[in-house]
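Repro case for the chain-ordering regression, as requested:
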Amino acid sequence: MSPAGQDVWVHVEHLKGRVAGHTYELLGKGREIADALAGRLIAVLVGSGVRPLAETLAADGVLYVEDAGLAEYTPGSHAAVMRALVEKEAPRAVLFGATSMGMDLASVLAAALERPLIVNCVNLQVRDGRTVATCQMCGGKLLCEAEASGPVVVTVMPGSFPAEAGLAKSPPPVEAVPMPATLETVGMRAIRLLEPEPGDVDITKSAVLVAVGRGIQRQDNIPLAEELAGALGGTVCASRPVVDQGWLPMSRQVGKSGMMVKPKLYLALGISGAPEHAEGMKDSDLIIAVNSDAKAPIFDIADYGIVIDMYDLLPALTQALQGRKA
Amino acid sequence: MNITVLLSMVPDLVEELEIDASGAALDTQWLRYVISESDDHALEQALLLKDRHGASVSVMALDYGDADQVLFAALARGADEAVKLTGIPEAGLGKRAAAATFKEALGGIRTDLILTGVQAIDDLDAHVAGMLGGMMALPYVGVTRSVEPSGEGKVLVQKEYPGGAAAEIEVTLPAVIGVLSAPQPPRYVPVARIREVMKTRTLDEREAVPATVPAEPAIIRLFKPESAEHAQMLDGSPEELAEQIVKILEDRGLAP
Amino acid sequence: MTPMRELNWNIAEHKLIYAVFLPFLIVFLWGVFVTMRRWLLGRPDPRWDRLWERLVGVVAQAGVQFRILREAYAGVLHATLSWGFFVLLAATCLVLLQEYLGLPTLQGPFYLYFMSLVVDLFGVLALVGTGMALLRRWVLKPKRLVEPRGSDGYSVLLVLIFVILASGFVVEGLRIVATRDPWGAWSPGGWLFAQAFLGMPQEGLERLHRISWWGHAVAAFAFIAYLPFSRAMHILVAPLSIFFRSLEPLGRLPAGGGAGAEGPGASSLRQLTWKHLLDLDACTECGRCQAACPAWLSGAPLSPKGLVLDLRDHLRARLGHSNGGRAMVGDVITREVIWSCFTCGACHEMCPVYIEPVPKIVEMRRFLTSQGDVDATLQDTLTATSRYGNSLGQSPRARARWTQGLDVTIKDIRRERARYLWFVGDYASYDPAARDATRAAARVLHRAGVDFGILYDGESGSGNDARRVGEEGLFEMLVEKNLATMRGCEFDEIMTTDPHTYNTLKNEYPRFGATWPVVHYSEVLDRLVQPDGVRLTRKLSRRVTYHDPCYLGRYNGVFDAPRRVLRALGAELVEMPRNRRSSYCCGAGGGRIWMKEAAGIKERPAESRVREAAALDAVGTLVVACPKEMAMFRDAVKTTGLEDRLVIKDLAELVEEATTLEVSGHA
Ligand SMILES: Cc1cc2nc3c(=O)[nH]c(=O)nc-3n(C[C@H](O)[C@H](O)[C@H](O)COP(=O)(O)OP(=O)(O)OC[C@H]3O[C@@H](n4cnc5c(N)ncnc54)[C@H](O)[C@@H]3O)c2cc1C
Ligand code: SF4
Ligand code: SF4
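-- result from build under test --
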């Protein structure tokens, strides 16, 4: 049995009774780190009535804190609990997702416990007993490799590691921990959860955008793009010429005179990548461009490029995605 | 309500970023500083509170980069008071040291609400706001898209979650809020007004109290991602290509 | 017997006319007083310089009406109507001269040839003009008269004028018959009417004559009394607006109202100048401005006529205290209207009475900008411009990046003297569509041995468009930055590729002490292709058309230099219907290139323009001389599907084509 001082903890993020996908990515990576440090991998699950979630977590153990006051997430209550636990058990590394919840908890915890904080990591490893993290800085224009020899708090970009390794094949041992902190002094109270307005196509809010340009050629072809967007769980948007033709409403236009979007995925189909268009989408997390012209400027801003007639690719892609879902 | 907004300058990404000879820091000679985007929103959020509900807004920045310019612009936009913390190294401070310095400076100020951007792009521990909350042991909520007063000594914030969802949380003051965005984009302030303010107003300069912070993680190296220039081209038959795309999406957790 | 006519024949009680006239006169004077008092609401603006030039303008435009006559139908109807009226008025005054000064104006050849024949013919002309006007208002109804709202007031006036003219002829006709006037036929109009009364008993003739005489007089008086309250007021105010017109170049925007308590720019009528307010009453509602306005024609909510009329209503309501608390900016003139203007100046060019919409619009923009009330994209642009010195938000260090990979090295004028300081401008430096033309210009100039240099990253945007969106402080900041650099350089002339830049350097920088001559590169090219310049042996046998950039042509009168260059290249130049002074804006000006497109745009100006060019017979090239146009027109040929009909070429690119061909011909 290794000392708790070498343990790797993963904060389990959950909302509406579901574990966020990146938690499994963290567990998968956490496993490697814990092994390298010869510590245990512990998942920390905080909430009310969410014990069943523990069963899916691939870890050496789950610390489960249950309290009615934790039913609705607030940064204050969860930070108080995490802080008390970390203070007591002193794990080596505490991993959070670089998400709305994780950012809050990690930064408060690191400051309160005077632990170093490394955020927005895309890679983590152990070298000579030190934790080495690679993280994104300056809007992805720079990567920074940093190391910490002692205890550390880390946030990890979702999508950095595969999730499979973090999914439990058999339920892990769960240790129910008595509520370690008081919630009276956290100074905040959850009021309600606001759902995004349904039916309202606000492409700036869509995480996945399938963008069509003049390469789509005819209005009749729009449904093909819609089908693909459906398979991806995304929304169709367009360059200006397509909107000009009246094939899609103005609210779908991306670019200088349209919307500024920053989705997780921007799939550009038959768009040349004129600066007026690029202006509106170049900050997307992942850009995949499909264009029949190898010299199209869109390839300068895309992460991945494919030179092909989009109509050859569309059916195959839609099918592959649908097949995967089924 | 007394609001203090903390403003930081970060490298302007419009300029090509250069790494210095040590390989572990940005070459400041080539740096151009701008106000951190989320700090800009934090200021806007404070000014909206002032406009709509009445508040006094004071802004504070560490003296490096274009601190003067940023503070004067904040005054021109409607802040009531601007504090510049002097005695800061030319290249600024790490975010934790910055948070600690702000904490010391805030000690002597009566403030109900501390607003600052949820993250700065230029450091390993980007979250000045959250760290300040932790250090001051004040309630802290980050990633907000709106802050409204809510009864005596409280504010109601909307904290963003992915996919357009949000949580409404009531926070007891004094508190620290890490703003992601204000309900409306930062207002434009005409150049003439900034110039006017530069002539008629002065910054409240205060010597920063050196703060001790735990050893920060050591930066081994800074480098540019390799494929930044051109897309990585995929090849193959339509079916193979489809498969490759699905794989990429899966790797990023984007596959349905 | 000497030809003559008896004064006041048959009207024994004619002295009564003064008593009858008095109330009408009082109403008239009151109306004039009220109107003029309204103008005093505005702030001062001295317009008393160069009196002679001003007077000549009044004679040419209010008298001869050159501008009005640019249009056939409307021109003729207005000229006949107004000249007819002038002459009849003059004749009436001449009658008074005989009555009070005893000058024999109703006797002899003067009476016969002028007072009878000429005056009568003018009366007929006026009657014809009135008929044409009524036909136009009631039947033809051209769009520009009825949109965005009609000007019904004119119908009443025209009918009244018709009554006055017709009754005049009736009176004359009756007199001719009743007095058996031997010279009756010398008054052809009256004579014609006389035919209707032949055979009437003398007593009846005289009675009817008296009635119609009084009727004629009362109708004329009614017209006079009604005048200040009607559309006819332009008869009095238009000469004033022409007299007090701006004699400054169109490209030199007046300084604003300054920062008073209400801030810079104009948020209320008080902050406009008295001349702006006078303009509102001078407007004839002819709609010529609107018919030329690219904003209106593209479907934007701005019509310069509509703007003037809305402001006029606001001015009138304001004094009647019935404006219901409506704010000038926002309520009366909406933000959409204010931001729609391209500042192309077509409305200034067209207006027969020299009304100036652009400075009014810019004053309102100044107010909005001072309030930070700008659209998101414009805000980004302004922020970028103040931060980086260029509107594209790019690194100032990359300003001269276009010179990379050029096989010629360009002098850094900050270090080396050159004849021309080439002020490149934002778009020409950064915009990918424009950069090729910039490079071509550099190569051509270099090859021709022109001695020039650029400021490299010492150049900032000129500020022309910043000024036009009302960001005066930003403009001044840019001017100061540029002048600080330029003052340290040695050169003789400034050359620009961007007409917008050209305009402000030439017209607005001098106020800050920049006294260098400014030339456009088309003018430099023009010098080059002259016989003693570079020889272009190989001719370009293309049919091309040329688009006059607003800020080069209409604003600064450079029309011929680019055309001469094209001809020298051997190109066959075919003019578009809207050319030179009536060139149609490409839609980039006035900062519009930085703003979100207005909702409901039917046809963008650039699209209308490329269609116009493509409709020319066998013309395959549209030549531009402005880097912004490159982006606008290249986009427009795509959106209109005219890509294979029309290519967009910069003037410099064509020159290069000619010289390159020559070189390769030798090789
Ligand atoms: C002031 C201004 C504002 C503007 N604002 C915007 C804006 O907000 N948004 C915007 O999008 N544009 C805007 N534009 C227009 C912009 O400059 C471009 O014209 C526009 O983005 C081009 O759209 P596109 O890429 O769809 O068309 P194109 O440039 O014509 O590109 C079509 C592409 O499709 C490819 N293609 C054709 N057929 C196929 C096929 N079968 N399979 C795969 N690829 C194919 C072609 O190779 C080509 O690269 C603006 C322009 C100006 C001047
Ligand atoms: S300047 Fe041009 S766009 Fe503006 S109102 Fe006049 S004609 Fe219309
Ligand atoms: S502003 Fe001038 S051109 Fe326009 S309607 Fe009035 S008089 Fe005519």
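Ordering looks correct now. The longest helix of chain B spans residues 37-53.
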